[in-house]
C-alpha cells in the first residue's frame, strides 16, 4: 500500500524531519499558518518546473539537466509580454503564449542533439544547458527590446539582469481567487493552474502516444520491435518537457515578481531534479505523485528550516541538516536507480 | 608669386599647422582598462566605455572572462598582453577579483615604469601596496559604522543584517558585520542577524531570494516599520527594495551602494536611452517613485555608482601621472579630481596606517 502511494522509506525520513521541524517551529512561536501558506506558494512556484521533467523521464531520456533551454524560451516569452506592456492576467497569458512556440522550436533542436547521443543524454543535456546560458548572455546584452523598464540603466541598450514585474503581472496567479482558511492564505488560482498542468500531463500519458512513450522508457528494445517510431517519440518527449519548462518559468517569475536573465537559469535544473528524486522517482516511470510529493517535501524543508535556524541562533545547524537529509535522499535515489538499471540489463 | 595667391597659401599653411597641432595635442600613449563583462558587472564595463568615448584612441578596454575564478589563467594572459604593447603606459584594473596580482607583478618586472592603478582588486593588501602604484577600494569596514548611523538618522530602531555562511567567512564582510553590531550597541539600536540559504550551494540563488521574500514580512511584523534592512549579497537588493516599497521599512544602503542596483528592477524605472547613465535623472526618477509609494525618506544610497566612478577617476589619475603632472598620489591632489569626476564629496582613508598608496573611499549619501 505504501508503495502504491509513492511513500517509501526516504520520503518517510523527510516527512519525519518535516513534522519534527513543524513541532519545533510551534514551540518557537513561529507562525505555522504563514509557513504553510508559503509552502503552498512554493509548491506551485517550483512545481511546474519539476513537472516538466516528467515526459523526458518517462521516455527514458533521463533527468532534463538542460532545463535552462526551456527556461530561456519562457524568459523570451516573458520579455516579449513586458516589451509590449501587457499587464495583469492577460500579460501572464501572453507570456505563456509567446513562450510555447519558442519552446517548441528550441525543444526540437535540443531533441535532435539528444537523439545523437543516446545513452549519454543526462551529461550532454547538462552541457547543453551550461553552454546555452552564455550564448543567451550575448543575446540579452544586444537584444533589441524597447521598453525602457527593461534596459540597462547606464548603457541604455540591452536587457537588465533583473526586470521587475510589479507594473505588469507580478503575483497575478498568486492572488487570483486566493482566500483565507484557518489563517492560511490559500492561493487557489495558483493551485488550480498547477492542477490543470498536472491534469494535462496525466491525460497525455493516458493517450496512445503517452502510453507508447512510457513503453519506450520501460524497454527500448521491445518498443523498437513493436514498430514504434522511437526517434519521433523521443523528440516529442523533449519538446513537451521544454514547453512545460517554459510555462514553469513563467509561473515562477510571476510569483517571484522579477524576470531573471543572464546566468540565473544556469543552476535551476538542479533544485527541480532534486525535488523529483526526493519524491521517489528513481526508476523510469515517474508519476504526478512523485512530482507533487517531491516538490512539496523539498521546498517545505527550505521554508521551515530557515526561520527555525535563525530562531535557534545556530543558523548553520538546520541548514546542514536540511542539506544532509535532502542530498542523502538524492544519493539514495540515484543508487537505487543504478541498481534497477543493472538488474534490468542483467535480466535482458 | 602673385598677391592673390598669398592668402590661399597662408590658409593652407595654417590648416596644416593646426592639423599638426591637433596631432601634437593627442598624446602618443594609451591606457589599458580592464573590467568584468557587461553581464558580470554593468557599472565597471560602462565606466570604461565612457572613458573610451571621452578620450578616443587613448583607451584599450579589455574584458575579463565571465567566470573569472574558473578561467584565471586566461585573465592573467589578457592582462599580461597589455604589458607587451609599448604604446600602453598605464594599466587600470577595475575588477573586484582576487588573483590578479601575479599578472601585475609580471608586468612590473618587465616594465617598471608602467603606471598601475587598481580600483579595486582584492589581493593581499601589503603585497598590493608593494607592486601597485595606487590601489583604490570602497571602505567596506567603515561602512559598518556609517550605515547603521545613517539608518538611525532615517528613523530606524532595529537593524537587520541578512547574510549567509560563505559571505560571513569573508574577513571584510564579517568585520563589517561586527562593526555594525558594535555601532548598533553604541547608538542604542537593536541588531538582528539572520542567515539565509547559501547561494553558493547546489540550488543557486533562488532559495535565498525566496527565503527573503517570505522572511522580510515576518520580521517587519515582529519589529515594526522602523526597521532598517541590509543584505550582503547583490541579488538580494531587488527583493529588499521591492519589499521596502510594499512594507515601508528602511533600506539605508545596498551592499554595493549605487542608484543602479536594485532600484531599477524593484521600481520598474523606465530609463530611456537618452537618460541612460545620467545619474541625476535616475535619482530624480527614484525620488518620484519613492514619493508615489509613500517611501520618501526610507530609501538611501550613494548618488553615483562607485563602479562607474572608479574607471574614469583612475584613468584620469593615470593620465596625469604618465604626463608627469602628478609627482605622487597625494590626497591633496587626488581629492579634487575625485570630486570633479563624482560630483559629490569623496572621503579617502589609508587602508592601513602608513600606507600612502592604498586608499579606501566613502561617498556622501542621497536620501530619496
**Within the largest sheet of chain A, what's the order of strands?**
1-4
Number of strands of chain A: 4
What is the CATH top level name of chain A?
Mainly Alpha
Task: Predict the CATH topology of the largest domain in chain B.
Answer: Rossmann fold
Largest sheet of chain B: 7 strands, mixed
The Cα radius of gyration of chain B reads 24 Å
Number of domains of chain B: 2
Number of strand elements of chain B? 12
User: In percent terms, what proportion of residues of chain A is strand?
Assistant: under 5%
Radius of gyration of chain A: 21 Å
Helix content of chain B: 40-55%
What is the average per-residue confidence, as pLDDT of chain A, rounded to a whole number?
87
**Strand line-up of the largest beta sheet of chain B:** 2-1-3-4-5-11-10
> Can you tell me the CATH topology of chain A?
ABC transporter involved in vitamin B12 uptake, BtuC
Give the oligomer, counting copies of the same chain as homo and different chains as hetero.
heterodimer
Task: Describe the overall structure.
The complex is a heterodimer of chains A (348) and B (368). Chain A is mainly alpha-helical. Chain A has one domain: Orthogonal Bundle (ABC transporter involved in vitamin B12 uptake, BtuC). Chain A contains 15 helices and four strands. Chain A has helices at residues 2-5, 9-27, 32-51, 54-58, 67-83, 88-116, 121-142, 172-175, 188-204, 208-218, 220-225, 230-256, 269-278, 288-311, 315-347; strands at 162-164, 179-181, 184-186, 258-260. In chain A, the strands form two sheets. Chain A has a two-stranded antiparallel ribbon. In chain A, β2 and β3 form a beta hairpin. In chain A, α5 (67-83) packs parallel to α7, α5 packs across α12 (230-256) and α14 (288-311) runs antiparallel to α15 (315-347). Chain A is globular. Chain B is of the alpha/beta class and 368 residues long. Chain B folds into two domains: 28-140 and 307-367, Rossmann fold (3-Layer(aba) Sandwich); 155-251 and 259-301, Rossmann fold (3-Layer(aba) Sandwich), CATH 3.40.50. Chain B contains 14 helices and twelve strands. In chain B, β4, α5 and β5 form a beta-alpha-beta unit. In chain B, α13 (306-322) packs across α14. Chain B is globular. In chain B, 48% of the residues are buried. Mean pLDDT of chain B is 88; it is low at 14-24. Chains A and B meet through α3, α7, β1, α13 and α14 of A and α2, α9, α10 and α11 of B.
Amino acid at each position: 500500500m505504501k508503495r502504491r502511494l509513492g511513500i517509501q522509506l526516504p520520503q518517510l525520513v523527510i516527512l519525519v524531519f518535516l513534522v519534527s521541524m513543524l513541532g519545533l517551529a510551534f514551540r518557537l512561536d513561529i507562525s505555522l499558518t504563514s509557513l504553510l501558506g508559503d509552502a503552498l506558494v512554493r509548491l506551485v512556484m517550483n512545481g511546474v518546473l519539476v513537472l516538466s521533467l516528467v515526459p523526458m523521464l518517462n521516455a527514458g531520456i533521463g533527468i532534463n539537466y538542460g532545463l535552462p533551454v526551456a527556461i530561456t524560451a519562457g524568459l523570451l516569452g516573458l520579455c516579449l509580454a513586458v516589451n509590449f506592456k501587457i499587464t495583469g492576467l492577460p500579460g501572464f497569458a501572453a507570456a505563456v503564449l509567446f513562450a510555447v512556440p519558442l519552446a517548441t522550436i528550441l525543444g526540437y533542436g535540443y531533441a535532435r542533439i539528444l537523439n545523437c547521443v543516446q545513452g549519454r543524454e543526462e551529461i550532454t543535456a547538462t552541457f547543453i544547458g551550461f553552454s546555452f546560458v552564455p550564448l543567451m548572455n550575448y543575446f540579452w546584452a544586444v537584444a533589441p527590446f524597447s521598453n525602457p523598464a527593461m534596459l540597462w540603466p547606464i548603457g541604455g541598450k540591452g536587457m537588465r539582469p533583473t526586470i521587475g514585474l510589479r507594473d505588469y503581472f507580478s503575483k497575478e496567479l498568486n492572488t487570483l481567487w486566493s482566500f483565507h482558511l484557518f489563517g492560511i492564505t490559500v492561493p487557489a488560482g495558483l493551485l488550480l493552474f498547477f492542477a490543470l498542468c498536472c491534469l494535462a500531463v496525466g491525460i497525455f500519458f493516458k493517450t496512445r502516444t503517452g502510453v507508447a512513450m512510457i513503453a519506450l522508457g520501460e524497454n527500448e528494445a521491445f518498443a523498437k520491435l513493436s514498430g514504434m517510431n522511437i526517434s519521433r517519440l523521443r523528440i516529442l518527449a523533449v519538446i513537451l518537457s521544454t514547453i512545460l519548462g517554459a510555462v514553469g518559468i513563467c509561473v515562477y517569475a510571476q510569483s517571484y515578481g522579477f524576470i531573471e536573465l543572464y546566468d540565473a537559469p544556469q543552476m535551476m535544473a538542479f533544485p527541480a531534479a532534486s525535488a523529483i528524486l526526493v519524491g521517489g522517482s528513481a526508476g523510469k516511470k515517474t508519476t504526478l505523485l512523485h512530482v507533487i510529493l517531491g516538490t512539496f517535501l523539498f521546498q517545505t524543508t527550505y521554508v521551515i528550516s530557515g526561520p527555525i535556524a535563525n530562531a535557534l541562533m545556530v543558523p548553520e545547524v538546520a541548514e546542514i541538516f536540511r542539506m544532509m537529509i535532502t542530498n542523502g535522499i538524492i544519493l539514495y535515489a540515484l543508487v537505487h536507480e543504478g541498481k534497477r538499471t543493472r538488474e534490468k540489463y542483467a535480466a535482458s | 608669386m602673385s598677391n592673390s595667391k598669398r592668402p590661399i597659401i597662408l590658409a593652407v599653411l595654417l590648416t596644416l599647422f593646426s592639423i599638426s597641432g591637433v596631432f601634437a595635442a593627442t598624446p602618443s600613449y594609451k591606457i589599458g582598462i580592464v573590467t568584468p563583462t557587461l553581464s558580470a558587472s554593468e557599472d565597471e564595463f560602462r565606466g570604461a566605455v565612457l572613458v573610451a568615448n571621452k578620450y578616443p584612441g587613448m583607451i584599450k578596454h579589455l574584458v575579463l572572462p565571465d567566470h573569472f575564478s574558473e578561467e584565471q589563467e586566461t585573465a592573467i594572459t589578457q592582462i599580461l598582453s597589455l604589458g607587451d604593447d609599448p604604446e600602453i603606459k598605464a594599466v587600470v584594473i577595475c575588477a573586484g577579483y582576487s588573483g590578479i596580482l601575479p599578472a601585475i607583478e609580471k608586468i612590473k618586472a618587465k616594465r617598471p615604469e608602467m603606471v598601475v592603478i587598481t580600483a579595486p582588486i582584492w589581493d593581499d593588501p601589503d603585497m598590493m601596496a608593494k607592486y601597485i602604484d595606487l590601489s583604490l577600494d570602497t571602505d567596506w569596514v567603515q561602512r559598518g559604522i556609517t550605515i547603521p548611523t545613517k539608518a538611525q538618522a532615517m528613523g530606524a530602531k532595529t537593524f537587520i543584517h541578512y547574510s549567509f555562511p560563505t559571505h560571513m567567512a569573508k574577513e571584510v564582510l564579517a568585520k563589517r558585520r561586527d562593526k555594525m553590531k558594535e555601532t548598533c550597541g553604541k547608538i542604542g539600536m537593536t541588531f538582528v542577524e539572520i542567515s539565509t540559504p547559501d547561494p553558493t550551494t547546489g540550488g543557486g540563488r533562488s532559495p535565498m531570494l525566496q527565503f527573503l521574500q517570505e522572511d522580510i514580512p515576518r520580521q517587519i511584523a515582529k519589529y515594526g516599520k522602523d526597521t532598517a534592512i541590509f543584505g550582503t549579497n547583490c541579488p538580494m537588493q531587488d527583493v529588499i527594495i521591492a519589499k521596502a516599497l510594499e512594507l515601508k521599512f528602511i533600506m539605508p544602503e545596498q551592499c554595493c551602494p549605487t542608484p543602479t542596483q536594485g532600484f531599477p528592477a524593484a521600481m520598474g524605472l523606465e530609463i530611456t536611452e537618452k537618460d541612460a547613465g545620467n545619474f541625476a535623472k535616475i535619482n530624480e526618477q527614484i525620488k518620484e517613485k519613492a514619493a508615489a509609494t509613500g517611501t520618501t525618506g526610507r530609501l538611501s544610497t550613494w548618488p553615483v555608482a562607485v563602479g562607474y566612478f572608479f574607471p574614469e577617476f583612475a584613468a584620469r589619475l593615470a593620465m596625469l601621472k604618465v604626463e608627469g603632472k602628478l609627482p605622487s598620489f597625494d590626497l591633496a591632489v587626488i581629492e579634487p579630481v575625485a570630486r570633479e569626476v563624482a560630483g559629490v564629496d569623496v572621503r579617502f582613508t589609508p587602508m592601513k596606517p602608513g600606507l600612502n598608496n592604498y586608499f579606501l573611499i566613502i561617498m556622501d549619501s542621497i536620501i530619496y
